């Protein structure tokens, strides 16, 4: 490992920017450095992770696995505290207690269901509680976990000098006031990109005037009655996702839950948290676009409606200038070239469809999945397949909207038939593949056999 590690160098650059702005106000989700900082920290935590040996072979694991096991494997004895280097001495009892409560909070959060989502949720809560250094401290003190988890030649966290540099940068972060909305977590399983999140309290009423559609566990507003309580000031719009009601998560809820909550609290103010389906620029929130498409919503018409709605404005040199209080999907992801994964590869392919496999997501199910999908599906969709460092992205070729983000930790197997080799597929679980109980087989077609081979090698 080089002492001039690019990931740490870039991370320190964002720490500096956060420090400069923290003097003026708390750091919120709208700060342009929060997203790339979190992405970089995740990349550092993932760099050099070893595979996990299972009955079906070696599978990828994620950083949340070792983080959640740290409390029961950490010894905070006074003798250990004295023998450790100064920068690695045991964390305070208060910080350790906060660390344990953060892990428990993450484990109980019903909005994240994958190891990727839980790891991201943990990072956000740890920033708010100023304990982001604690897992790094404890990991370094526990050589057994460190050696089982990370490759000593490629990992930052397995290198003592680089760990010291990382801790120095993260220590500065613990001095900042992060005011992140940790309730905004329902899409962390899929992406770091956050939507606009709104909390409302409506007057007591029998009906909010919202028609709800359900897709992939999301409760989505497909129609809002004009003149209704929800429609006032566009509080709820078509394409918005109902995230919480009375403090209870609506992610993966049964269709009867919302009417049941309203029935049992009749006559009380209605507390509702909303994930907006678009940014103030009028652009769709990318993960929302895929579920809206499944509901049959005309996305082009919806975007035009969003764009026609006026933005907040201010006077600058006697002219009106638009204020965007939240960065849109594209500006939030604008990052220096050195931060972009060097091994991203893009392939134009046809998405054939997916078929449910049950509990078995092994390689033996690939051929079955392809044949079943070809038998059941008559339409093919043009998409862009992008292989990134940690996930596979499926995008719309025209809008570049992300339709799916499939973490490699959730992919159980991939492969193609002997003939024709233009088809390929992978199995995907609802959580880490070694823990998943439900697998789907996603099937694609490429222009030639070489392309399918290249994609499988990248996966």
From TrEMBL:
Signal peptide per UniProt: none
Any single Pfam family the record assigns to this protein: RUN
Residue span(s) of domain RUN: 28-185
Highest taxon in the source lineage: Eukaryota
PROSITE patterns, sorted: RUN (PS50826)
SUPFAM superfamilies assigned to the protein according to its UniProt record, in alphabetical order: PDZ domain-like, PH domain-like, RUN domain-like
CDD domains: RUN_RUFY4_like (cd17682)
Record protein name field: RUN domain-containing protein
Biological source species: Strigamia maritima (European centipede)
């Amino acid at each position: 490992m080089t002492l001039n590690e690019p990931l740490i160098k870039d991370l320190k650059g964002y720490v500096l920017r956060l420090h400069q702005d923290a003097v003026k106000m708390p750091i919120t989700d709208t700060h342009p450095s929060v997203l790339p900082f979190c992405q970089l920290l995740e990349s550092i935590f993932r760099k050099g992770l070893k595979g996990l040996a299972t009955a079906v072979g070696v599978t990828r694991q994620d950083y949340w696995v070792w983080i959640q096991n740290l409390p029961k494997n950490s010894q905070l004895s006074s003798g250990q505290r004295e023998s450790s280097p100064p920068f690695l001495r045991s964390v305070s009892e208060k910080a350790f207690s906060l660390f344990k409560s953060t892990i428990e909070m993450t484990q109980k959060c019903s909005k994240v269901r994958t190891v990727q989502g839980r790891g991201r949720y943990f990072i956000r809560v740890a920033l708010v509680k100023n304990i982001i250094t604690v897992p790094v401290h404890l990991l370094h003190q526990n050589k057994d976990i460190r050696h089982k988890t990370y490759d000593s030649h490629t990992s930052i966290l397995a290198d003592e000098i680089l760990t010291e540099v990382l801790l120095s940068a993260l220590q500065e972060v613990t001095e900042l006031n992060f005011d992140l909305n940790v309730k905004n977590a329902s899409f962390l399983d899929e992406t770091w990109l956050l939507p606009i999140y709104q909390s409302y309290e409506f007057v007591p009423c029998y009906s909010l005037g919202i028609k709800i559609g359900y897709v992939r566990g999301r409760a989505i507003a497909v129609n809002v009655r004009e003149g209704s309580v929800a429609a006032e000031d566009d509080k709820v719009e078509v394409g918005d996702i109902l995230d919480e009601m009375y403090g209870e998560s609506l992610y993966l809820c049964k269709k009867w839950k919302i009417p049941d909550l309203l029935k049992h609290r009749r006559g009380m103010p209605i507390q509702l948290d909303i994930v907006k389906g678009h940014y103030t620029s009028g652009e769709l929130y990318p993960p929302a676009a895929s579920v809206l498409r499944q509901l049959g919503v005309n996305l082009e018409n919806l975007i035009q409606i969003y764009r026609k709605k006026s933005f907040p404005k201010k006077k600058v040199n006697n002219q009106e200038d638009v204020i965007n209080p939240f960065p849109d999907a594209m500006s939030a992801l604008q990052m220096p070239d050195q931060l972009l994964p060097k091994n991203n590869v893009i392939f134009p392919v046809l998405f054939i469809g997916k078929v449910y496999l049950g509990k078995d997501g092994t390689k033996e199910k690939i051929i079955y999945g392809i044949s079943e999908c070809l038998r059941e599906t008559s339409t093919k969709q043009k998409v862009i397949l992008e292989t990134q460092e940690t996930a596979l992205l499926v995008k719309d070729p025209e809008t570049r909207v992300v339709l799916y983000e499939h973490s490699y930790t959730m992919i159980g197997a991939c492969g193609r038939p002997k003939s024709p080799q233009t088809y390929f597929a992978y199995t995907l679980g609802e959580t880490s593949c070694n823990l998943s109980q439900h697998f789907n087989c996603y099937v694609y077609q490429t222009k030639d056999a070489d392309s399918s081979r290249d994609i499988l090698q990248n996966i």
